[in-house]
Amino acid sequence: MLMVAREIGAASAPYRSGATTAATAPGRRRRHPLARVAALAALAAPWSWFVVRDRGELFDAAAIGMPLVVPALVGLLLVAAVIRPLRRMGLAAAASALVVGAVVVVAPWTPQGSPVPEPAVRVASANVLLRNTQAAAAAAAIIDIDADVVVSLETRGDIGGVLDRAYRYGSTSDRELSQRIYARWPVVEMERLPGRLAPHGLRAVIDRPGGRFVVYGVHLPRPWLDSSRTSVPVEVHTELVAALADLVRAETLPAVLAGDLNLVDRSSGYRSLDAFLRDAVRTEWAGPTSLKRRVRFLLPRIDHIFVTEGWCAEGGGRFNVPGSDHKGVVAAVGPCPAPDRSS
User: Fold this and answer.
1) 130 with 40, same domain?
2) Where is the Endonuclease/exonuclease/phosphatase domain (predicted)?
3) CB atoms within 10 A of CB 87
4) What is the pLDDT of residue 131?
């Protein structure tokens, strides 16, 4: 009897202490100790993008395709989450990738603070499209912006003629180029860019009351896998952006860089310019400027206005150009106000 009592007491001990075993909870699985670590790693992995994004053309291509890559990746991760052992990790990675994608695409559109320029020069840039079938309306839209300086790209003779009559100074006698620079003040110098940039833009010196400044009107070819009439290999586009940056950096006068750079604002090339120039359009919320059907879903902002150090900006924005596959961009730029020394 004593032995039977001991056996009964031993068998009932787990129940008295509240312990549970696999036998008492057959539907419950013990979590692997590495499961939480794997979920945290999956959550952190997409953020490594900000470490590797400037490592070469491959990552620039990924940046351009980010609005397409991220939804595809999130979809694959959600499919993986259906598999029970991968559920936690898949959901964590999907949520993290979605947030990273949104940050990558939208962050370069967010407004950047700037003091109000004194005095301001209103600058507009528009790719009007060589095949534009609404030339009169396109020219009228540009004139209605009431800019002091206009950079007009892919400018046909009919549109150029209207702008020539609207602006006393500027344009160019180099009819091999479709880039034009127009101004309300005398243009004392107008020349092609040097070297390999020669087919892609103009440099003008404008004699505004209060001080001269430089304007670059540029239309770079789009980066692609190979060369064509309108495209160059990605590495060549990178070299053109670097050469353009060197020119602007070497200026001794205040400079404005405006035009269709075919440079997406989430690329390393854009960041290389933004590192020493002010993005004048981002004084307000920015957004896509290319309206081409085949790339519209990529949300590309490729038309820009930059100013050099010492100049500020306000009133940045986009405007419609009838018949064009681009939106125009506009901003008021000029010398930053002198610091208040009264206090």
Assistant:
1) no
2) 124-326
3) 13
4) 93
Long-range contacts of residues 266-269, Cβ cutoff 8 Å, at least 24 apart: 266/63, 266/64, 266/66, 266/104, 266/105, 266/108, 267/60, 267/63, 267/64, 268/53, 268/54, 268/59, 268/60, 268/63, 268/238, 269/60, 269/237, 269/238, 269/241, 269/242
Same structural domain, 128 and 177: yes
> With contact defined as beta carbons under 8 Å apart, do 112 and 319 qualify?
no
Partnered with residue 333 across adjacent β-strands are 121, 313
Residue 208: inside a domain, yes or no? yes
**pLDDT of the residue at 140:** 97
Residue whose token pair is 């950096």: 249
DSSP-assigned letters across all residues of 181-241: EEESS-EEEEEEPSGGGGGGEEEEEEEETTEEEEEEEEEPPEEESS--SSEEEHHHHHHHH
Helix (H, G, I), strand (E, B) or coil at 292: coil
What is the number of structural domains in the chain? 2
Alpha carbon distance 140, 152 (integer Å) = 13
CA–CA dist 235, 232 (Å, integer): 8
- 316 in helix, strand or coil? strand
8 Å CB contact between 86 and 42: no
Report the pLDDT value the prediction gives residue 16, as an integer from 0 to 100: 46
Domain that holds residue 187: 113-335
Q: 260-270: per-residue pLDDT in tens?
A: 999 999 999 99
Q: Note whether 283 and 114 are within 8 A (CB).
A: yes
Q: Give the gyration radius of the chain's Cα atoms.
A: 29
- pLDDT value of position 24: 43
Residues of the chain with pLDDT under 50: 1-25
